[in-house]
Amino acid sequence: MVKKKKERKKREVKIKAILSGERVLAEESKQSKSFYDQSRFGSITKSGIQYSLVEALYLFEKGKMLIYDNKKKKLTSRQFVLRARKIEPSFWIRYCVFKDLRNRGYIAKTALKFGADFRVYDRGVKPGDDHAKWIVYPVHEGDTLTWHEFSAKNRVAHSTRKRLLISVVDEENDCTYYEVKWTRP
Predict the structure, then answer these.
(1) Active site includes 95?
(2) Regarding beta strands 134-140 and 163-169, do their DSSP bridges make them parallel or antiparallel, or are they unpaired?
(3) What is the pLDDT of residues 74-101, one digit of tens each?
(4) Mind listing the domains of the chain with CATH numbers?
(5) How far from 90 is each of 42, 81, 109, CA to CA, in Å?
(6) pTM for this prediction
(7) Among 68, 39, 42, 37, which Cα is nearest to 55's?
(8) Which residues contact 139 (CB under 8 A, 6 or more apart)?
(9) Residues 114, 162 contacting (CB under 8 angstroms)
């Protein structure tokens, strides 16, 4: 029984992707298309499937993706994280939140057009089937937010008809979520 499990793991085809600037690109393959169809990993483009840095690291850690640099050298997890942090200084905090949400069964996608880090869909809802329920702002527990910044985030959520989640990441990379709502007295 153990031998069969090992054999299946060896035969499992991994997505081969290239780190190119702020994105990770892969050709459209049976495996990459399957991950997109099942869980909406990546976004389909004319040239294949494009992954955000956090999506790529998540798939890499799950053993579903191999990531190469532009010189076709395979990257380790550490090398990828170091490069991603050069591109996005808050990459690790964002990744901790993305990973936590995915592990809890939510689909998290980038939310740049909403002025947020992520838009998050309720469990069982796929992007395109319905709208996101939340927009999420990851912060480290040692960071500070001014009332102006906090108010701006809340206004964005309200104007896009989404709920605001502030995700606080502690020193152990655990996430605590705070939902913020407008109320009228």
Answers:
(1) no
(2) parallel
(3) 999 999 999 999 999 999 999 999 999 9
(4) 7-87 (3.40.1170.20), 91-180 (3.40.1350.10)
(5) 20, 11, 16
(6) 0.88
(7) 42
(8) 93, 145, 166, 167, 168, 169
(9) yes
Catalytic site residue from 162, 177, 178, 181: 162
- Average pLDDT value over all residues in the chain: 89
**C-beta separation of 95 from 89 below 8 A:** no
By mean pLDDT, which of 116-130, 134-148, 159-173 is the weakest?
116-130
| Given 58, 95, 121, 137, the catalytic residue | 121
Q: Spell out a b/e string for 21-49, using b for 16 or more CB atoms within 10 Å of the CB, else e.
A: eebbbbeeeebbeebbeeebbbeeeeebb
Residue 161 phi, psi (nearest 5): 60, 45
Spatial neighbors of 35 by CB under 8 A, at least 6 apart, are 15, 41, 42, 59, 64
**131 belongs to the catalytic site:** yes
Pair of tokens at residue 121: 């869909």
Give the bridge partners for 180, in sequence order: 164
pLDDT recorded at residue 7:
54
For helices 91-103 and 77-87, give the axis angle rounded to 10 degrees: 120
Specify the pLDDT at position 53. 96
At which residue do the structure tokens 């990531």 appear? 67
51 catalytic? Reply is: no
